[in-house]
C-alpha cells in the first residue's frame, strides 16, 4: 500500500463513519465507542513506559469485538494519537484473526517496520489530514519563516488538532514534498502524494519546514558570531 493508497483508505474510513470537518479535533476514544461499535477501547497504566498501546484483532468479528488498549500514563494528546495508531492496525490493514500488535516508542526488531510506518502515517493523516493542514500552513507561511516560527506553529496547531507537538513536527516532515507543492501553487486536488522512499527513487529532495528552520537559525547564529568577533 503506497502513501497515496493509505490516505485514500483513511478518507474512505472517515466517509464510512460519517466524520465531518467540523468535528475536529477528533477524539479517538469517542470515535471507537460511538462510531465503530465493533471496537472496544480502554486506557491501561502500563508499567512498561515505552509501550504505547496494543491492538487485538478479534477471532470472529461477528460475535466479538476488536480491542485497543492505550498507555494511560501518557498525555491526552499522546493517547489520542496512540489510539489512532492502533485503530489503523485494525481498520485499515489486512490482518489475521486473533493477530496482536504491541507498539512501542521505537520499532522493535521483531516488528514489521512497514506495518508500523503505515499505522503511524495513517494515524497522522486521520487526526491531521493534509487537506486541512496545508491551507493553514500557506495562510501563516510568512510567520513560519521567521525565528522559531515553525516550532510555534506546531505548538499552536497541535492543540487545535488534538495531538502532541512532536506529532505535528513529524507531520511537517512526512508532508515536506506535499507542502512544497502546495506552496508552489499546486491545487490540493493535483498534489502528488509520495512517501520519502518513493521521493528518493524519483530523485526528489525537499527540505521540511523543520529542517529549513534549523538551517535558518544556524545561519543567524553564525552571523551573530561573526558580528561579535568583528
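^ C-alpha cells above, recovered residues below v
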Amino acid at each position: 500500500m503506497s502513501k497515496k493508497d493509505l490516505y485514500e483508505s483513511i478518507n474512505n474510513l472517515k466517509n464510512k463513519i460519517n466524520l465531518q470537518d467540523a468535528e475536529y479535533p477528533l477524539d479517538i476514544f469517542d470515535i471507537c465507542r460511538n462510531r465503530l461499535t465493533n471496537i472496544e477501547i480502554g486506557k491501561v497504566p502500563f508499567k512498561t513506559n515505552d509501550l504505547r498501546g496494543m491492538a487485538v484483532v478479534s477471532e470472529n468479528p461477528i460475535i466479538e469485538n476488536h480491542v485497543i488498549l492505550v498507555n494511560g500514563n501518557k498525555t491526552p494528546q499522546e493517547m489520542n494519537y496512540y489510539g489512532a495508531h492502533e485503530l489503523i492496525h485494525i481498520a485499515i490493514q489486512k490482518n489475521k484473526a486473533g493477530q496482536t500488535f504491541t507498539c512501542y516508542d521505537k520499532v522493535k526488531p521483531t516488528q514489521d517496520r512497514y506495518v508500523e510506518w503505515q499505522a503511524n502515517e495513517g494515524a497522522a493523516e486521520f487526526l491531521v489530514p493534509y487537506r486541512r493542514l496545508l491551507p493553514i500552513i500557506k495562510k501563516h507561511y510568512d510567520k513560519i519563516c521567521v525565528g522559531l516560527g515553525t516550532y510555534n506553529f506546531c505548538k499552536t496547531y497541535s492543540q487545535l488538532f488534538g495531538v502532541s507537538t512532536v506529532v505535528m513536527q513529524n507531520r511537517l516532515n512526512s508532508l515536506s514534498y506535499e507542502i512544497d507543492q502546495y506552496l508552489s501553487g499546486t491545487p490540493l486536488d493535483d498534489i502528488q502524494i509520495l512517501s520519502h522512499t518513493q521521493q528518493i527513487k524519483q530523485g526528489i529532495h525537499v527540505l521540511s519546514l523543520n529542517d529549513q528552520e534549523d538551517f535558518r537559525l544556524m545561519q543567524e547564529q553564525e552571523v551573530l558570531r561573526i558580528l561579535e568577533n568583528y
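The radius of gyration is 19 Å.
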